[in-house]
Amino acid sequence: MTKRSANSIDLVLDVAGRDYKLRTAPQHASGLTEAALQLNEKISAVRQRGRNLSNEQAAVLAALELSYDLLIEREMLVQQLESSRL
What are phi and psi of 33, to 5 degrees? Predict the structure, then answer.
C-alpha cells in the first residue's frame, strides 16, 4: 500500500508478519519491497532449520546472514576490481 506525496511515498512493508511504514522516495519503493521479500524468505529459511525462535530472533539472524552475504559480495567485487586493474 502506498500513499503518494510530491517527493515521497508512504510504503507499508510486511516483515515477519508485522507491518512497517516507511516514507521513501518513489524510486526506492520497488527495491525496498524486494528487500522485504528477500528478508522474509531468509526468515523462513532460518525457522525451517528446526530451532524454536521468536519472530525477533529469527529476524535478527536472517538480517545477520544477509549482512554477511553482502559483506562477502563486496569483498569479492573489490578483489575483482583490483585484479582487473593489474
Answer: -65, -45
CA distances to 2, 14, 59, 65, 79 from 69, in Å: 30, 22, 15, 6, 15
Total domains, the chain: 1
Predicted structure pTM score = 0.80
Domain around 57 = 2-85
For 7-66, write each residue's pLDDT tens digit. Answer: 999 999 999 999 999 999 999 999 999 999 999 999 999 999 977 899 899 999 999 999
Q: How far apart are CA 20 and CA 4, in angstroms?
A: 16
Kindly state the cell numbers that stand for 61.
539472524
